[in-house]
Write a structure and sequence with these properties.
Number of helices: 7
Strand content: 5-15%
Helix content: 40-55%
Mean pLDDT: 83
Low-confidence stretches: 231-238
Structural class: alpha+beta
Largest sheet: 5 strands, mixed
CATH topology of the largest domain: 60s Ribosomal Protein L30, Chain: A
Strand order of the largest sheet: 1-2-5-3-4
Shape: elongated
CATH class of the largest domain: Alpha Beta
Number of strands: 5
Oligomer: single chain
Radius of gyration: 27 Å
């Protein structure tokens, strides 16, 4: 019976360790270390390695550092992937970028393609022009090589619109973004990856007091969302 009880105790300890490894952080480690010390009748700090840390603390510190290293490597690879995507879009759309009709930017959120609405639609309309279809088809081919989610957002200026098709700028901005998404789906992008957002005249990038400013505010943005970065676990070391 004593041997059996020892075996069950060790088996329990093993599964506790496995759980601790799967989702370890500083707070959980302290609780786990205290529990292990009570279970085995030892005091924290026993087995000092000469670094001011016990063997258990050294072991879990090594586990945390290895996990942090894996997270850092994964984050670097994600950033390189987003950089390649940004470069591919810039290369394909260089003629439009140089004219100021488009811009490609990379941020922590992802890669954003900002398109002036004047090159996509007639004023007050949400039907893609033939030239825009060709350009967006090239964009879709690049995006089809990725699996990351894509947000398409429509923006207008602050001039009101009130037609049977578009009672307000909300409907117009949403319809324009939807036109781009429909084309992407026709070109092979999975609908599950895509999201449509209409902002109307909110979030302007320029003043609506001038013709030039209103033209800049009428735009569609296509953002390829980067995978959310996993927070590195603090080891408490400086």
């Amino acid at each position: 019976m004593v041997s059996y009880a020892d075996f069950i105790t060790l088996l329990f300890a093993f599964f506790v360790v496995m759980y601790g490894i799967s989702s370890v952080n500083e707070g959980k480690y302290k609780v786990f270390n205290g529990s292990m010390s009570k279970a085995f009748g030892t005091k924290a700090g026993n087995g000092d390695t000469g670094t001011g840390m016990s063997e258990e603390e050294m072991y879990f510190k090594a586990l945390i550092e290895r996990r942090n290293a894996r997270l850092a490597e994964k984050f670097i690879k994600q950033q390189e992937r987003m950089k390649r995507l940004s470069e591919a879009l810039n290369s394909k759309l260089s003629s439009f970028v140089s004219k100021g009709a488009m811009s490609v930017t990379q941020s922590e959120r992802g890669v954003t393609l900002d398109i002036n609405a004047s090159m996509l639609f007639q004023q007050g309309d949400a039907t893609l022009q033939p030239e825009a279809v060709v350009t967006l088809t090239d964009v879709a081919k690049i995006l089809a090589e990725e699996a990351m989610p894509v947000e398409v957002e429509g923006y207008t200026d602050n001039l009101p619109i009130a037609t049977a098709q578009f009672p307000s700028n909300w409907e117009l901005s949403s319809a324009r973004a939807s036109s781009v998404v429909r084309l992407f789906i026709e070109q092979g992008l999975s609908a599950e990856r895509l999201k449509v957002i209409g902002h109307a005249d909110n979030d302007p990038v320029a003043s609506n007091d001038t013709t030039e400013g209103r033209a800049r505010n009428r735009r569609v943005t296509v953002t390829v969302l980067a995978p959310p970065p996993e927070a590195a676990i603090s080891t408490g070391a400086n």
